[in-house]
Amino acid sequence: MNAHAPGRIVEVNATAGAHPLHDSAASRRAEAAAQAARPEPPLMARAGLAVARLALALAPQARRIRVYAGPGNNGGDGLVAARLLHQAGQAVQVVLVADPLILPADAAAAWQSALGAGVPAVIGTATEARAAATDLVIDALLGLGARREPAGALAAAIAAINASAAQVLAVDLPSGLHPDTGVVLGREAVRAHATLALLTLKPGCFTGAGRDHAGALWLADLGTAALPAASPTAWLNAAPAFAPRPQDSHKGRFGDVAVVGGAPGLVGAMWLAARAALAAGAGRVYACPLDPQAPLLDAVRPELMGRRAWWQAAPEQLDSTTVVCGCGGGDAVRAALPSLLSRTSRLVLDADALNAIAVDSALQALLQARQARGARSLLTPHPLEAARLLGRSANAVQQDRLGAAQALAQRYGCAVLLKGSGSIIAAPGELPRINATGNAALATAGTGDVLAGWAAGLWAQRRDCGAAEVASAAAWSHGRAADLWPGHAAGHPLRAAELIEALAAQR
User: Fold this and answer.
1) Is the pTM of this model over 0.85?
2) Where does 149-280 have alpha helices with state H?
């Protein structure tokens, strides 16, 4: 195989630390800057070599490889890889889903080189190649250029890839997936087992449908140096650093948390959040039910202290406590919100607290006023709650999760943790972060209450931290607990009470 090095190829996963993410515009600037440096060998040669090497590393037993090449430079990268794999002795077939007479110059040269090397190739749709069995498929159809729903031969090729039983490696990103938002641009996008990002990591692979379609993420820097033109548009969230507790500690050193929620019939949500705050390490946790008939003792965790109408406490107590409001709050939470919005310094707003604010302009004004006086707020909505706060549909939020989280942060002057696959952390004046931990085991009742309580428990111990920093730490740990839970591989849901213990085991 070609002796020229393709640069570093590294796996990028939830434990890989903070990585810059670049949307399509920033990625194109990075590519233009790299091209302007006139690298030798050229970028396409480096990209094709990186694809070929990763293909052999991921599927060393593959003997039959099919490369689907599209009409742009992504297809050219695939054609270079096909030639190199053929020259390495692999049985390779190319399906060119494009007119070879109108390929870009570099891709056209790669096509001619592949033909000249004797690579078997067909032109047209995927149907010409369906009969032959395949061990590995390389998706080089669209890449960064995807902006609209694939049609015709491209759509047929995507369907053929997804119908194959072969392992799938996508070049740069899965064809049919929007690089910035993670939205599927039509009926289907390629479902890859692995994706090799070229030069930059694209945010769409880490949020929305992107995580299901991209599979394991790898990055090839193609031997280019860091480029000033490639300013990131977001960051991949990194693991938090937990410092050991000093030996001369006492509970007062680790702060107080109050959880205000638990309307009639919903008290369990309050207890879950309170238990999570305690497990996160808060020194004292107060559970403050909105149901006047609710018991003030949690028999499972008697360490928790029940309080009636705590939101009417003295201003200095409200100010010194980290507060969670909304977990199981129902309509009753509205009575507590004016005091909490006006008097607390650190406030986590979840669930019914967010729903109440969404329909009350006076509460919105109180929330917006907190930033000006230095009070810090963290909103933890799921997509429907975010939609209500923004006055748009949940589908519109999911179509641009990064944009929705940033819009919420700007409108209300808060940090925002928009939950979902690839949770988004946003704050005014900061680049957003995408969290890559977590899995579908968290799609069960109460896990959001646990997240809110865990965030408050961390914040109580780090009272000088910004809300976005706390949200990032909480989201990473919350998802990581699910990733480490043995039942997720079998598709079992992780019950919220079990999640608390899984979180505590990480501390």
Assistant:
1) yes
2) 152-163, 210-214, 267-280
